[in-house]
Structures
1.
Amino acid sequence: ETGVTQTPRHLVMGMTNKKSLKCEQHLGHNAMYWYKQSAKKPLELMFVYSLEERVENNSVPSRFSPECPNSSHLFLHLHTLQPEDSALYLCASSQDVGSNQPQHFGDGTRLSIL
Amino acid sequence: QKEVEQNSGPLSVPEGAIASLNCTYSDRGSQSFFWYRQYSGKSPELIMFIYSNGDKEDGRFTAQLNKASQYVSLLIRDSQPSDSATYLCAVNTGFQKLVFGTGTRLLVSP
């Protein structure tokens, strides 16, 4: 059983819809991350939060809007997405944002944009 | 030049053999290195991490790091069919910026 839980596991939405992805970690970690994984491409870091503060925004389009209300929960709000945004979205957490801390991943949300 | 490079494979080995997975990286300042295993349709699972030059062993897995050559590898001894997965190399280039390779697909045949 993973210590990082993501919901929903699958999501199909139209380009004009608004939806949110949810991530919850039960590991007592202080840092949380959103990644995008597309076919044939490496995982791409999208956002980093440390103690509920955003510390990294990796040139992500504004149609993706993260929210971190506390150190255990992370959301990714989606609106007006494009077909190329179809991918697996992974949440991860680590103890802190120190460089030697391993990250632990949730099972991901498979997103399909119609 | 890609920041983290891996051969996409597939790497095919017979059951019981040693599987050797390789990764090179471009940022000389990188401090920590991670190997993740990802089964199809599943999330990446941490297998090993290594910070210092040399070898680090954990069960059937050995991670090897050579910072001078900017090279990190993962050896899997006594490979099992259940080891068949994609192995992702990840390099921390500073302040938790984890850069991943595209992964090497490993196939272990019974």
2.
Amino acid sequence: EPEVTQTPSHQVTQMGQEVILRCVPISNHLYFYWYRQILGQKVEFLVSFYNNEISEKSEIFDDQFSVERPDGSNFTLKIRSTKLEDSAMYFCASSVDRAATNEKLFFGSGTQLSVL
Amino acid sequence: ILNVEQSPQSLHVQEGDSTNFTCSFPSSNFYALHWYRWETAKSPEALFVMTLNGDEKKKGRISATLNTKEGYSYLYIKGSQPEDSATYLCAFIPPGEKLVFGKGTKLTVNP
């Protein structure tokens, strides 16, 4: 069964450093997402991406964050200058159609980011 | 602020017990409700996508109901098995593309 893959599974970085989290969505999916979960809190929406541009973003997704689909398969999340509070599990997801229709999201297994 | 609440936060049951949990969400601007099952160290996996008031969906021993007028959904598990142990997340979808998640119900089924 096709799946969303994320790399790395764990990333440790120093505060102020840039990190890039990588995802390979399912190949025929058109909508791509990043979510995160800070330990003990709810899973939070960061950004959705469709047709090579951001279609919706949350307040969390400020100028320190960016997303890119550099080729036909990868979808990346970049955090320019990491802060301690960016430590979280970051999930990539994809779907055939937008979430507000009858389509479910397929999630990757996450990248645990630890900022020291 | 859109708020999704799930109860209980955690639940321990014996193998063979039936159980249910609740998801409460805003009753206005409703587009869809998703239920996901999330096992430790794995990806959250979709169980149900529900869009219509009164929807009832079933997958094996797991079923869900939806009341959009009053803003709640129930997830039922009949005859729980140890492999049902997981965190069950519900997500409300308002207009747009984001999912608004509850905190989840962590189910542990003891053999």
3.
Amino acid sequence: DAGVIQSPRHEVTEMGQEVTLRCKPISGHDYLFWYRQTMMRGLELLIYFNNNVPIDDSGMPEDRFSAKMPNASFSTLKIQPSEPRDSAVYFCASSLREIDGYTFGSGTRLTVV
Amino acid sequence: DAKTTQPPSMDCAEGRAANLPCNHSTISGNEYVYWYRQIHSQGPQYIIHGLKNNETNEMASLIITEDRKSSTLILPHATLRDTAVYYCIVRVGWESGGSNYKLTFGKGTLLTVNP
């Protein structure tokens, strides 16, 4: 298995632009998680899905952030409009069951200038 | 979820065992102990988890005290590639019901393995 695949690896965008981050979980995994990591705040859970349904989005910072999971093999995290404070590394992770360890992707490093 | 306390940093000599402590004195009966690590510039990596009994896998061993108020992650023969931030996390298990299975990361312990 190729693991959790995230794209792009790096994204540089101007303030105000729309940014879309993509994630392909491990096949057969029922849970998908989006995390954000910054030096100041560490790793923060933004949202997670179970069987493509959002279960908890309480970590989504504000309405500029939205996440979707249209099918079991694809999820997106969208920021519109982007701001410099959104600069961070965004990780996607998946797990087979809730009790299992998560498999994380390599992350997307987002820089908003 | 119960809070955990870990030392901010530790050093270990290459080839020796690395013993990483974690205090979780307020852990509940239905909370599991999970360990992850994050090597610089990579995504976190799951290591091991347990409820009451000691656990071992190909990466590490997890020793949980009888009262479950603390645990130790043991890397039996540390290598330079084990240099990473190690996170100890407690989280409710599926038996508790509901839908809150969030994994909340703290600051972790930076383990530096020295040649």
4.
Amino acid sequence: NAGVTQTPKFQVLKTGQSMTLQCAQDMNHNSMYWYRQDPGMGLRLIYYSASEGTTDKGEVPNGYNVSRLNKREFSLRLESAAPSQTSVYFCASRWGVPMADSPLHFGNGTRLTVT
Amino acid sequence: KNEVEQSPQNLTAQEGEFITINCSYSVGISALHWLQQHPGGGIVSLFMLSSGKKKHGRLIATINIQEKHSSLHITASHPRDSAVYICAVRGNQFYFGTGTSLTVIP
């Protein structure tokens, strides 16, 4: 079982460049999330998708866009990278049925450096 | 304002010691999650609980809903337990603690 697959694992960008982080899950989960992890801070939500066809902003959405391409895939795009976006990015998914809790499943992370 | 506070931030233990990591939260929740993040970065879910206690191998998680507090215990700690342990709660969204970095020395 692949679980949550996230690519790439590492990326270095110059300021102003663009890139897309890819995420796919094979668990038929409804909800998918993009988080960033910075030293000394908890995971912070960038965007999430409660179900196929819907996306919503999280705590730190500025500078990012997302696409829920289908139930499996949820991509994160940086249109014009800035040094403040240097971080480790995690994609996560969960079953997400209303009124029922379920554990989060995480990808292995993307370490992004913007110079 | 931190909705989830963990203590301690860092913890070093000798192999075999009993370890406790604490988590306090300030929001109404439907469930609390304990996560483990190994060096190299991957995050895995250890427990999800909304009441009482759960046990998996040498790991035990407890929650006191009235006091808004949870503990993660590791019995007979081992160097392979060295990792960052993250407490997360689900209210209207997920809130994450900053993690407890555990090092177990042989």
